[in-house]
Write a structure and sequence with these properties.
The complex is a heterodimer of chains A (about 280) and B (about 375). Chain A is of the alpha/beta class and about 280 residues long. In chain A, about 15% of the residues lie in helices and about 30% in strands. In chain B, strands 3-2-9-10-11-12-1-13 form an eight-stranded mixed sheet, with helices on both faces. Chain B is globular. The chains are: A alpha/beta (about 280), B alpha+beta (about 375). At the A-B interface, strand 1 and strand 15 of A face strand 6, strand 7, strand 8, helix 4 and strand 14 of B. Strand 1 of chain A pairs antiparallel with strand 8 (about 110) of chain B, so a sheet runs across the interface.
């Protein structure tokens, strides 16, 4: 007598995307160009992420590294650090991966008019900011200066070096530092805060976009505050274990934040400043 | 004045109620005694109910005893909540089959049959609402949960015999039922087999129409008040629900977290029995034929893997994991969803093998509000 109905798990089911191009950025970082096989996802904003499935291995959150609204394939830059990211980074042209998204908050590019912008990144932290950088470089405004400060452990771990050169040519003030130099390196040596000691404009009123390891973000935020940037105008991108992307699985909690919903981009002040720590003791 | 929405039925009426629900197409899930506990199973008749059974609960202890009183609902809550019915502990989300370089994805989903939650305590009904705030209230709601909850028929039974571990009065979820039910029963004292039934929905009225009853009198309502009054008086544990969010948020470095970490086994029992814990892990498996299956299963924040992030877990210590659980339940849940995550059912106290009591832990922090562990400099938080 009891009638059953079938209910689909809806938002948990990935769309199929095909790898149409790939580029090895360095020893453990790969960029994948993906095109939809079936229904494409909704338009995304810079700073948002997708859940990518390596079929048979698992699903992980990967930020979108192309610019919103750009024609062609959607780009994801993957660092090979675990089973799923290894499978994704190893995927070849023609392979099919799963994709759900876009999820989370964005860098708020539409608010960056009439103010100077400081972008601070550590390592692969440039990937979630690459779309924003492309947008800022390609849409210059007379009343907006853009500064990019990049830190990497080693010279060969700098991602998108050619692209940074192009942004420099387009008027972005770019500086790069490495923790440990090699024989060919002629640039800065040291952590990123050492190239964050001055700005070509007054920090007050500027907006900072920061992405990297949490300790790097904390120290960068302190440097930015010392340079006059208001803590409320510092935006950081935070990461925790993500298994659903839609605020249903509970893994991405950081204090009051569900980072897939309230993040990944959150204001540094007042809450994130107290919370970002890579290990909770 | 007797309310026109309330009637009185007898023990046979309870049986007819189950029959009436089944006739309307509901699978009736109700309390039965199995494996030494009161659990939920499909029931077909009132004689399956735990007549005469009582539960004795203490931190880390649950025992059933049998009396000759003939009470049908003379117990508090068992280890299972109706969470299982709306949010199965394991469900398959999709399957993918490989075909050369191509691949087909098939959404699997769940077969949902309308269920009646018979004998759900008011705290359980409150828990369903809390869970709904998370799983149905999200921008992309969980479709299976949402449908299961929408189709469920709730027969709540108010509490006459709360357990020693109960603290629903502190969380505003019991022992009486105020809303979110189709029918609310109260087992009245006195000659056995007298139940006051209040109607909470049109569906409730329709189901009740097939059951022999008489209108409730003022005396019946007084008898209900008496049952609830006794229940309120019997509840000894308290938790300051209003103060807890701020208290815990400003005491993340309180020494009590080390104290409780010395007792907590990080087993996750509290999260399994909790009627509102919703964490779920997504797992992918592949069979020998190459078919990929994505499964969602209950997870616990006490598991190291819960906070795993490339290279290691964010919450390694038991201190940080217990703190995550308790601050989420009582404090950050409010930030995230606008209400507390705790309904005061006391299951986490009863089913903790170490007998850790959330009300006691909260009170201990309140007693030395602002105390900070001083043995380690804060810089140790940096990796």
């Amino acid at each position: 007598m009891t009638e059953t109905e079938h209910v689909s798990p809806g938002p948990f089911v990935p769309s199929r995307y095909r790898v149409v191009d790939r580029k090895t950025e360095n020893s453990d970082i790969t960029t994948l160009w993906l095109e939809p096989v079936d229904r494409p996802i909704a338009p995304f904003k810079a700073g948002q992420f997708n859940m990518l499935t390596a079929f048979g291995v698992g699903e992980v959150a990967i930020s979108i590294s192309s610019a919103p609204g750009a024609p062609g394939a959607i780009e994801h830059t993957v660092r090979d650090v675990g089973a799923v990211s290894h499978a994704l980074a190893s995927s070849q042209i023609g392979d099919v991966v799963g994709l759900r998204g876009p999820f989370g908050t964005d860098w708020g590019l539409e608010s960056l008019t009439g103010c100077n912008v400081v972008v601070v990144v550590g390592g692969i932290g440039l990937a979630p900011l690459r779309g924003a950088m492309r947008y800022l470089a390609e849409n210059p405004a007379p009343d907006r200066k853009v500064v990019l400060r990049v830190g990497a452990r080693l010279p060969d771990q700098i991602v998108f070096p050619e692209e940074m050169e192009r942004w420099r040519e387009m008027g972005v003030d770019v500086e790069v530092t490495v923790d440990v130099a090699d024989a060919a390196w002629t640039g800065h040596v040291g952590v990123v805060t050492q190239i964050l000691t001055e700005l070509p404009f007054d920090g007050a009123g500027a907006v900072a976009l920061v992405c990297g390891p949490e300790i790097m973000m904390r120290f960068s935020a302190r440097s930015l505050i010392d340079l006059g940037v208001s803590p409320e105008n510092i935006r950081v991108s935070l990461e925790r274990n993500m298994q659903c992307g839609i605020a249903l699985c509970g893994h991405c909690q950081l204090g009051p934040f569900l980072l897939c919903r309230d993040g990944p981009v959150v204001p540094y002040a007042p809450l994130a400043a107290e919370l970002i720590t890579e290990i909770e003791r | 004045m007797p309310s026109p929405d309330a009637v009185v039925i007898d023990a046979n009426g309870v049986d007819s109620l189950i029959t009436s629900l089944r006739a309307q197409g509901f699978r009736v899930m109700g309390p039965v005694v199995a494996n030494g506990a009161i659990v939920h199973r499909e029931i077909r008749a009132a004689k399956q109910l735990p007549v005469g059974w009582h539960d004795e609960q203490e931190p880390g202890s649950y025992r059933l005893s049998h009396g000759d009183d003939g009470e049908m609902f003379g117990w508090a809550v068992g280890p299972e909540s109706f969470k299982q019915s709306v949010f199965p502990s394991r469900s398959v989300l999709w399957r993918a089959r490989r075909d050369g370089q191509d691949l087909a994805v098939e959404a699997t989903g769940d077969d949902v049959a309308p269920e009646a939650f018979f004998g759900a305590r008011p705290c359980e009904v409150a828990a369903l609402k809390v869970l709904g705030g998370v799983l149905a209230g999200a921008a992309s709601p969980d479709p299976v949960f949402t449908r299961r909850r929408e189709t469920a028929f709730v027969v709540t039974v108010e509490c006459g015999r709360p357990a020693a571990t109960c603290f629903c009065t502190s969380m505003g979820s019991g022992p009486g039922a105020a809303a979110d039910f189709d029918l609310a029963l109260t087992e009245l004292a006195g000659p056995s087999g007298r139940f006051l039934v209040r109607v909470g929905s049109e569906r409730g009225a329709a189901v009740l129409a097939g059951v022999a009853s008489r209108p409730a009198t003022a005396e019946d309502h007084r008898a209900r008040d008496e049952v609830l009054g006794h229940a309120v008086a019997a509840i000894s544990r308290t938790l300051d629900a209003e103060a807890a969010p701020g208290l815990l948020a400003r005491n993340l470095e309180h020494p009590r977290w080390d104290d409780v970490a010395g007792r907590c086994l990080a087993c996750g029992n509290c999260t399994l029995v909790c009627p509102t814990c919703f964490c779920a892990a997504v797992e992918e498996t592949t069979d020998l034929a190459g078919t990929v299956e994505e499964t969602r299963r209950w997870d616990t924040c006490f598991d190291l893997a819960h906070s795993y992030l490339h290279g290691g877990s964010v919450r390694v210590s038991t201190r940080s994991r217990y703190r995550q659980w308790m601050t989420h339940k009582l404090s950050t849940w409010v930030d995230q969803f606008g209400n507390s995550g705790c309904v005061g059912c006391g299951r986490c106290i009863t089913w903790c093998p170490a007998g850790i009591d959330i009300t006691e832990e909260c009170a201990a922090i309140a007693a030395s509000d602002g105390a900070v562990k001083t043995s380690e400099p804060t810089a140790v938080r940096d990796r």
